[in-house]
Amino acid sequence: MKITFNGASGGEVTGSSYLIETNRARIVLDCGMFQGGKRAEELNHLPAGYDKVDAVVVTHGHLDHTGRLPLLARANYGGPIYATPATIEMSALILRDSAKIQAQDNERHNRKRERAGEPPQEPLYTPAHVETILQQFKPAPYDQPVEVAPGIRACFAEAGHMLGSTSIKLFVNENGREHALAFSGDLGPRGAPILKDYEPFQKADLVVLESTYGDRDHKPFKETVEQFLDIVREASATKGKILVPTFAVGRAQLLSLLLAWAIREHRIKPFPIYLDSPMAIEASKIYQHHFELFDDEMLEFIREGSIKHDLATLHLSTTAEDSKKINDVPGPCLVMAGAGMCNAGRILHHLKQNLWRPDTHVVIAGFQAADSLGRRLVDGDKVVSILGDKVAVKAQIHTLGGFSAHAGQTDLLNWFAAMAGSRPQVVLTHGENPQRRALAEKISQQHGITAQLPELGQVLELA
Question: Which of 197, 317, 342, 373 has the smallest number of CB atoms closer than 10 Å to its CB?
Fold first, then answer.
């Protein structure tokens, strides 16, 4: 049996994808898009052999885990793609948006190529490829093994990262022996609002563990809430704008819920809030279809009052014209807009209009990939380029790691500890190298197991 690491390896955080090959079958686990700069664009192709696999299984719907799936349709792959029902809905939303953005970007770039006398190029994939691949999704239940290919069963367990997110355990029968391979997917922090906490597996022969925050824990959630509310109060007092680059799935819903709670509890006064993301608006509707995935505290909050009443000052911006009108809105106000890493979308226009203003607050509430605009803001760049223009960074930049949808080091170690007694091989992916090395050191100290840190494209053979 062989596993090829075709993404989120070698220090890459995005592009998650694994090819698992046995003497009876070949499957792909996740097929994500690389994000964060020109190198990412160069890596976004379909790895060799993916068009000839028996099946695909998907941990969750985020673009860095699903974004290359339409390339399978482009390559005429006709097999099944297994995921939870909520992941199927979220994947449809995210992939359609991805194809739309690519079409828009490609049209703009081709205009520049035409002026330069260069031939036009095609986008990575089209909306038609997305619609084709969406027809191949098949719903998988939680906690019940499903045969996905000859000799391979997959069991999906709650990962607590986003709606529908899972860890996947593969039971692989080869040469009369069953191997158990556990893939963490992206794990969420325990105790975070809205979703249930992750459920670890108990035994495994091999564990592939994410390490996005493998070197540290986040600030406690309650402290982060207070920090966020202090920013809101300061902006309200100075009549400034708060810009939040928002991942449309997960972060937008978390922050909306937090604002509803703060207003209901009179922690802040109502003020204008703009959700400037058609995708986040649609994602919020999908959340309403899946109360079965909510934790008890969230269900209680829903029962106790009206979130719609709490958020009476929330404005939903669906059209480009709606978005442009926000430029003329005086502060105080809060604007949540995609994309979460400031690498595309409406947030770019809001940053261009407001980054140079000292009374603006920018709240970074999630992971920022290397080379992304969000990372440059976090790293303290004083001047950045946005849509071809140089913009001075005079706004106050706040990094609130406690709102992250990724587990910190302690939670990662706790998820792994449930399987450590079976002495599995451990592979760390989905993290930059300093984070991978720090988590590997902790695993060695606590369990005496040496973790492997594969490079992109590396092949691991299992006896």
Answer: 197
